[in-house]
């Protein structure tokens, strides 16, 4: 008899292990969609090894724990035998994780339905677990297995009842299981409450495990995280809090379901670490890492391995566990965590191709980048934010429909009435009180916007909400003013009918201008039709919702300059560099100069009413550029000072 490796110390998870001798060869594990393929050792029974009991209920000498354990082992061995075959073969590794070979794929193959005989076998096992739980209600291991497999069976209400009636002496485990069930059922607020109670009651060593960010970053990310912490002098608790504020997929949805998912995965690790699994592996850090990074499998398959690839006993089978195909990277880049206000616009995209960690929210398994443009302007001691947004597409991936279950635990805000769209260029600010709708347009617009909620959020880095404005419009322009400070800005759209979301998230920082210094606002790119606007309000009406342009399109630029002194003039240069703003090697090193239709000059004499603010806009035709990403720069050169350069990313499309 050899004990399994346990990551929890104490009576709750201490369990004897069935006696089995092992032989090992390599097998494969894969995740669908953006797939992850794991080559894992397949553990086989050698000749002469003792087998587990075939009918635990018939052996009256077994304790409730032993009966439950043997039933759980039988189910996982049966799963390995009955899961459906998979056509594709082994194709190498993208990443090695301990004993595991990790591979991303995007073949679009559907997740195979569970065989009916496996469903029946799990329900037979659940009856054994229920009997064992009845006889030993204080046993946390038995209850954990019972709740875990009830959730896998989609019997969430039964799982909730079992967790609610928990009699385990370690009460934190009862709350942890209840949080796991609520999260599985999409009840975000209830899950949060349960997990917080568990965290408050659990031992310090266990709490450290739950709050740990292990496995969320690769080696470069861990180094960046450590460097950012050292530079910011923030403590670990503050950094972890800022990480999860940023990782929340949509602020439109109350609560933080990504943090709940992290805690639910910690529960899964505790449950699975002391149990058999379909791969036949004893639990070690590599399996723990994959659960923390990607969660539990949502489907299983069995494939065939080339017999010539090795192995001790010539068995060519391998097990394939699939994850949600729409999983996205919501955990922010490590370098953003310590200073969220410094996150550049357009730099933080939701990674879909090869996410370090994966998660698919139940309310919107597919969340994509929102086409938007946001600018910062000064109004005394306040920060004026202006912007425009519009989702790029209303289509959704068919693959996401198969995997949704549970009911959302939140409600949409009431839908606003549609506004006056009579102006050709004007798109109403969706976050302002709506004017009375035209009677003829009401039915058409209401049908188009039904099920759509949009939101503009401005948060402090610690998560305190400064601005929470919501509407029911799929697109719009807006202006809002907040005090100077450091913020996270998030523009979001959620279509509850399609279960599809869009978001653009960035940082913003603004303080007072030091005396005798000048400053510039962000650069705005506008629809170029008509004469250039004369005020910022007119410019916002023509603001492009995201900057995708065709070569030789006509655009307009707008910006403000602050702090010029009497008689001071500035020279303005406009040009492009290839790539995003972060790739600019040296300010002023432009790919080509773009000449506006009228020379641009700034001076104090024509400043605004406050005597220190100058608004400027110019219209121009774009030069011939190959399709790709560029950055448009406006360089403002003041006498005897370093130039100010304001930039905006532009995507040129065919």
Write structural notes for this entry.
The protein has 654 residues and is α+β, with helices and mostly antiparallel strands. The chain has 3 domains: 22-322, no CATH class; 362-512, no CATH class; 513-654, Sandwich (Immunoglobulin-like). Strands 20, 22, 23, 24, 26 and 27 form a 6-stranded mixed β-sheet that branches.
Please provide a brief summary of the model.
The chain folds into three domains: 22-322, no CATH class; 362-512, no CATH class; 513-654, Immunoglobulin-like (Sandwich). The protein is elongated.
Helix share, percent: 25-40%
Computed CA radius of gyration, to the nearest angstrom: 29 Å
Instruction: Figure out the total of helices.
Output: 14
Shape: elongated
Structural class: alpha+beta
Ranges where pLDDT stays below 50 over 5 or more residues in a row are: 1-11, 13-58, 307-316, 394-428, 434-448, 582-588, 601-609
Total tally of structural domains: 3
Main beta sheet: 6 strands, mixed
Q: How far is it from the N-terminal to the C-terminal residue, by CA?
A: 67 Å
Give the percentage of residues in beta strands.
25-35%
Describe the secondary structure blueprint for this structure.
Elements: E1 22-26, E2 29-30, E3 34-38, E4 41-45, H1 64-82, E5 95-97, E6 100-102, E7 104-106, H2 116-135, H3 140-152, H4 156-164, H5 171-184, H6 188-201, H7 204-211, H8 219-232, H9 236-247, H10 257-272, H11 285-294, E8 299-304, E9 317-322, H12 334-337, E10 366-369, E11 371-379, E12 382-390, H13 442-449, E13 452-459, E14 465-471, E15 476-483, E16 485-495, E17 500-510, E18 519-520, E19 524-527, H14 536-541, E20 548-550, E21 554-562, E22 569-578, E23 592-593, E24 601-603, E25 613-621, E26 628-637, E27 644-653
Parallel strand pairs: 10-17, 20-27
Antiparallel strand pairs: 1-4, 2-3, 3-7, 5-6, 8-9, 11-12, 12-15, 13-14, 13-16, 16-17, 18-21, 19-21, 21-25, 22-23, 22-24, 22-26, 26-27
């Amino acid at each position: 008899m050899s004990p399994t490796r346990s990551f929890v110390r104490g009576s709750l998870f201490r369990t004897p292990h069935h006696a089995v001798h092992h032989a090992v060869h390599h097998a494969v594990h894969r995740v669908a969609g953006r797939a992850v393929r794991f080559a894992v050792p397949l553990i086989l029974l050698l000749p002469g090894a003792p087998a587990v009991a075939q009918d635990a209920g018939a052996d009256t000498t077994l304790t409730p724990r032993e009966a439950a354990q043997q039933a759980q082992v039988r189910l996982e061995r049966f799963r390995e035998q009955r899961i459906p075959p998979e056509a594709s073969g082994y194709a190498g590794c993208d990443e090695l994780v301990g004993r595991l070979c990790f591979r991303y794929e995007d073949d679009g193959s559907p997740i195979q339905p569970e065989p009916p005989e496996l469903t029946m076998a799990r329900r037979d096992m659940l009856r054994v677990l229920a009997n064992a739980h009845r006889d030993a209600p204080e046993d946390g291991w038995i209850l954990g297995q019972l709740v875990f497999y009830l959730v896998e069976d989609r019997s969430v209400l039964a799982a909730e009842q079992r967790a609610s009636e928990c009699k385990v002496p370690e009460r934190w485990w009862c709350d942890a299981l209840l949080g796991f069930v609520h999260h599985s059922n999409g009840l975000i607020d209830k899950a949060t409450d349960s997990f917080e109670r568990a965290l408050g009651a659990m031992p310090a060593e266990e709490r450290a495990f739950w709050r740990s960010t292990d496995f969320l970053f690769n080696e470069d990310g861990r180094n960046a995280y450590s460097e950012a912490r050292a530079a910011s002098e923030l403590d670990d608790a503050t950094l972890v809090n800022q990480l999860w504020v940023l990782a929340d997929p949509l602020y439109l949805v109350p609560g933080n379901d990504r943090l709940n998912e992290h805690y639910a995965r910690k529960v899964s690790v505790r449950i699975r670490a002391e149990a058999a699994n379909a791969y036949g592996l004893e639990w070690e850090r590599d399996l723990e890492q994959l659960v923390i990074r990607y969660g539990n499998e949502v489907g299983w398959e069995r494939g065939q391995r080339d017999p010539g690839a090795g192995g001790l006993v010539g068995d060519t089978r391998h097990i394939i566990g699939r994850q949600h195909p729409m999983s996205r990277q919501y955990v922010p880049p490590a370098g953003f965590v310590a200073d969220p206000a410094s996150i550049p616009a357009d730099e933080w995209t939701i990674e879909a191709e090869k996410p370090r960690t994966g998660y698919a929210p139940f309310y919107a398994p597919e969340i994509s980048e929102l086409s938007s443009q946001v600018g910062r302007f000064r109004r005394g001691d306040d920060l004026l934010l202006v912007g425009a947004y519009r989702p790029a597409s209303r289509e959704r991936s068919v693959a996401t429909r198969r995997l949704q279950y549970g009911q959302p635990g939140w409600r949409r805000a009431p839908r606003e009435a549609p506004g006056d769209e009579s102006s050709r260029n004007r798109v109403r600010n969706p976050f302002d009180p709506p004017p009375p709708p035209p009677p003829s347009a009401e039915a058409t617009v209401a049908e188009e916007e039904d099920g759509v909620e949009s939101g503009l959020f401005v948060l402090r880095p610690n998560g305190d909400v400064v601005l929470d404005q919501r509407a029911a419009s799929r697109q719009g322009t807006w202006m809002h003013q907040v005090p100077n400070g450091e913020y996270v800005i998030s523009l979001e759209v959620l279509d509850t009918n399609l279960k599809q979301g869009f978001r653009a998230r960035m940082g913003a920082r603004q303080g007072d201008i030091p005396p005798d210094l000048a400053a510039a606002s962000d650069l705005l790119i506008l629809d170029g039709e008509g004469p250039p606007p004369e005020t910022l309000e007119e410019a916002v009406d023509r603001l492009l919702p995201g900057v995708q342009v065709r070569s030789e399109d006509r655009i307009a630029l707008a910006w403000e300059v602050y702090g010029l002194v009497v008689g001071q003039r500035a020279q303005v240069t406009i040009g492009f560099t290839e790539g995003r703003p972060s790739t600019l090697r040296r300010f002023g090193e432009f790919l080509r100069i773009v000449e506006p239709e009228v020379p641009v000059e700034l001076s104090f004499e024509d400043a605004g009413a406050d005597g220190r603010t100058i608004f400027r806009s110019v219209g121009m035709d774009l030069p011939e550029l190959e399709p790709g990403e560029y950055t448009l720069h406006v360089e403002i050169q003041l006498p005897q000072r370093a130039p100010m350069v304001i930039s905006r990313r532009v995507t040129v499309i065919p």
